[in-house]
Model the fold of this input.
Amino acid sequence: MKRPVSGVASLVLALGTLSACGAAAGRPQVTAVCADKMGSDAKCTCFADALEKGLAPEEFATVAKGIDDNKSFAGLLPTNLSDDPKISGVVAQASQSCFN
Done:
């Protein structure tokens, strides 16, 4: 007897697809907010690339959302993310390699 895909399986598939799309959409947000604050598209593209390479996909998505949510404030990262040793280390390394 063939059974149609359950509603739960469909929901899991949809959430997985949305999650993957959200992670990919983080890079343009990081680049745009950075360029608004730092004034250099090329350096901010380098910065976003370095963050994406240095962080796990879910960490990068969290950082991208944090940067986008924090765009109205002076700093690039919100305090909760800048207090994370791994994230602050990757951000410092990306900043040093892209802005110096």
